[in-house]
Amino acid sequence: MKFNVLRTDLVEAVSNVSRAVSSKASIPALEGVLIKAYGQTISVSGYNLEIGITTNIDATIQQEGEIVVPASTFNAFIRKLPEEVVCIETDERMKTYITSGSASYKLVGISSVEYPDLPVFEETERFEIAGDTLSDMIHQTVYAVSDNNARPIYTGSLFELKDKILKIVAVDGYRMAIRQEPIEDELESKFVVPGKTQNEVIKLIKSEENVKIGVGQRHIVFKIGEYSVISRLVEGTFLDYNSTIPKDKKTEVVVNTRRLIATVDRMMPVNGDKIQSPVRMNFSNDQIHFSCTSALNSADDIIEAPIMGEEVEIGFNNRYLFDAIRNIDSDELKMTLNGSHSPMIITPVKGDSFINLVVPMRLANV
After folding, report:
1. Which residues contact 93 (CB under 8 A, 6 or more apart)?
2. Residue 276 — left, alpha, or beta (φ > 0 → left; ψ -120 to 50 → alpha)?
């Protein structure tokens, strides 16, 4: 194999696909990137048996071929090359020669035969959505995905398509985030996408250009420009999320989002890493009184806001509350409560594109 390629193109491609490379794998080839040179392009792939990222870049190919090169070493080498044009050549012993200007490197690769095939599957459903819209939807929900593998289904987000609406729902037992947007496609489908896959997808989205999504029985592919992100779907039965949203409301308050974020953030230094004391929120007399007390520290703050309905005192995990409010893309937000033991609903004042639920912590005297 022998080809010339622009260094900036190669560095970007290898850097992006390397995020799907295993750092420690039982199959040594999975610690490398697969390079295939055919026709007028090279494809670069990373794969860890759960998620694969692949892309194509233009190149001048003198001799076609394939090889797997160690990802971290190869990435370090090409980043330090002095010229824009890079020549890469391999021999029958899998030695790979990298030259650019006066600089050259040599490393030993692995035969592409040792590299597991990326999943190939029939796309039973296909739809498109604007890249910036999908990125916003994932950003505003993926933080609520569970990191507890004891219940694998909640390590992913539910993607639900119905009535020309795409909903993304994430839940971890303590909070839930729901984000929805209209789409053009008339599909009815549900599937669960791993949180790790979603995080890789949003790193690759850089424009409003549509992301093409293909879904199979067990896999999904996101096509973002020249990149494809292929992932397993999470199998299992997802929560009936509609049944968890409180239907009654006893207290309602509208507050400035930035002011609320700053206030909750001021409560955070009180807690240490091991013990999380709840942040108390007392809704009364057109004020929200915030307080947090640990064994050594305490904090208090007040926001003036008209309280509609009953007075209530409720407590929350500081981090869960902070994540919920900072992901509201609105100048003002509305908090709706149904007593001190029911989840609080957080929504923008206008529209229904985003719903966030935070489960309260039990307070000693409530």
Report:
1. 108
2. beta
Chunked in runs of 10, what are the mean pLDDT values of the chain (366 residues)? 97 97 90 97 96 97 97 96 96 95 96 95 95 96 94 97 96 95 93 98 93 97 97 96 93 97 94 78 97 90 96 94 92 96 94 92 75
Structure-block tokens of residue 354: 């985003």
Report how far residue 274's alpha carbon sits from residue 270's, in angstroms, rounded to the nearest whole number.
12
Q: What whole-number distance in Å separates Cα of residue 250 and Cα of residue 311?
A: 9
Q: Following DSSP, what letter does each residue of 26-93 receive, concatenated?
A: SSGGGGEEEEEEETTEEEEEEE-SSEEEEEEEE-EEEE-EEEEEEHHHHHHHHHT-SSSEEEEEE-TT
Compute the distance between CA of residue 162 and CA of residue 149 in angstroms, rounded to an integer.
Answer: 29
Q: Is 148 buried (19+), middle (13-18) or exposed (0-12) by CB count in 10 A? A: exposed
Task: State pTM to two decimals.
Answer: 0.92
The string of DSSP codes covering 203-242 is HH--SSSEEEEEE-SSEEEEEETTEEEEEEPPPSPPP-GG
**Is residue 320 classed as helix, strand or coil in its secondary structure?**
helix
Residue holding tokens 């957080």? Answer: 346
Q: Looking at the DSSP assignment, which residues form a beta bridge with residue 335?
A: 253, 346
Burial of 21 (0-12, 13-18, 19+ CB in 10 A): buried
Asked if 71 and 21 touch (Cβ cutoff 8 Å), the reply is: yes
Q: Is 169 within 8 Å of 146 (Cβ atoms)?
A: no
Report CA Rg, the chain: 25
